[in-house]
Amino acid sequence: MQLTKILTKKLTSFWLLSLAAVAFVFLLSAVMSFIQLTYSFQQQKVTELETMLVAHHKQHGNSQLATWLPPLLSAYNAVDFTLTHDQQVIYQLHKDKPILPKSSLTLYQRQLDHGLSLSLTLPAPFVLYHLGWSEVIILLIGFIAIGLFVRFGHRWYSRELDGIEQLAQRSKLILDGNLTQAAQMPTNGKPRLINRALTKLLTDLDDAHKERGRLDQFIRKDTFLDKQTQIGNGIFFQNRLDALSHDQTMIAHGVLMLIEFDDVDLVEDKLGESDLTAMLTLTTEAITAVLAQYEDSIFARRSYQQLVIVVPQLSLAEADQLAQRVLKACLALPFYGIGNPENFLHLGSAFFKAGDLQVQLIDEAEMALRAAQLQQVNNWFMYDKGAVDEEIAKGSVRWRSFLENALVSKRFFTLQQAVVDSDNSILHYEVFSRARDHQGKDVRATLFIPMANKCGLMPQIERQILEQVLFTLMPRNDATYCINLSLDTLVSRAFVRWIQSTLLEHRPLAARLIFEVSEDIIVKHQKNTALVKSLDMLRKMGAKLAVDHVGQHVVGTHYIQEFHFDLVKLHRSIVRQVHQRSENQLFIRSLIGGLYRAEVKVIAEGVESFEEWQTLKILGVSAAQGEYLAQITETEA
């Protein structure tokens, strides 16, 4: 851009200099022509005088010169005149006080016929002419007209060059990747044809990006969605269930429900495929509406006639209530053509807690489903082992009291996990939060975060965590830290004002911060003005933005470039056993291909084996984090 501005200034200066040079040469030529013309006119007059003197000498000799010569010489403004005949002076005129200095006089010495010689001193012809008011006014009008025309030409020339400047600005924005800002620039600059061409190319490129996002969504749908019900398929369910487990053991508590329709084949033969699809669609819509209030819930079609629901972070009492609500919502639908409407839908639930085996959990859900079917009526059955963690049994009031006391006593602390690149070099650290109870025991974030969201305490908790990062961790080293932010925090005016003033006060720290937001928040609330403004403010302050849990839900990826995310974190369900799952590899390839020119790094979460990490590097993933990489960094340290 600086070079372009310098070029336009040089072109404008060259144009003005050229115009001034032309005007100067023109005026100089006019003055020289005027001087030359006056000298020629004076020489002509001298020649005429010579002719008159020769003619007079032939007729009258040397007499009668004093009668006609003085008035003629006076008309010529002669300063000095001498006429000799055979070297004898026959007439002489000399003015005692010359009207002009000698440098402005012209001497003419000529040899005439019949022995006459002439010596005549005349003033320079252009010296005798003086400009009058009329001539001065004409010259002023001429100069003013020239100035006006020059100014008009300069403005026109500058306006034409502004079009080139605008093209340079748009080109720089395009090269910097600011395609949206380049497309919004005015296109009235010249040459307009090039501006219109750029606008058309930017529009086509934007459509191509959106089409790529739609293609990514189509690939994910084709891979992870059931075509008949448009909910997750068996692969999607298995990926998400694997993400909730480690080494085939569950890492959190919750409930798994199996919903099965009896005699689906007979219903399809009787009603047809379209009516069966309509029945399944109504059922999935009703269940989805019930699950809307449960975050991170999993809903998929496990088999031809079986649906599955997994809701983590749910207590046993809440699981019973959910099963009743799901069954009630399904039975309220207008099912027609069912062979036995009183015995066609059954629900089996299995409550699980941290440490339970995944295979055992599915077996228990299957046993609960068979128990519900044995009752031969539309019903549900809960497989309850009778063991519920003490921490799960805490009510909302006890949780609120615990969290508020932890905030006042500042019993929230941080844990860090390194994010490493393909060379096993640490890029940054992700910060995780923990709480400590009165007995000094650590409380996992998976336990207190759902309750903190229900109690509206997440902004205070995340502010306390962020204060520890800013004023305790960051002064110790030069590392970069990644902090997760919830929706309540990002739309909290008090938190946004605090973080803005803090980053303004400690501006260098902003470049070492990465703020991470869940994909689910962005997709569901991308039209939330407060959320958009908060993310934009953090980015303008110099911090980077990251979106995590990418791949957890089947959505398009166009939001990544619209919100200017710098990092994209793959959900652990996509990463788990990726070396054995071609559909997950297909999704990662598609995602990285769509972000190739966006300068966005793709990071994998939950890497637990060498095979997973090697496969991810081959696919083009920039960095990763997880237990396997944590062991490597600890060993190297």
UniProtKB/TrEMBL annotation:
Keywords: Membrane, Transmembrane, Transmembrane helix. PROSITE patterns: EAL (PS50883), GGDEF (PS50887). The chain crosses the membrane at residues 12-35, 126-150. CDD domains: EAL. It holds the Pfam family GGDEF. NCBIfam families: PRK11059.1. This is RNase E specificity factor CsrD. The lineage of its organism: Bacteria, Pseudomonadati, Pseudomonadota, Gammaproteobacteria, Alteromonadales.
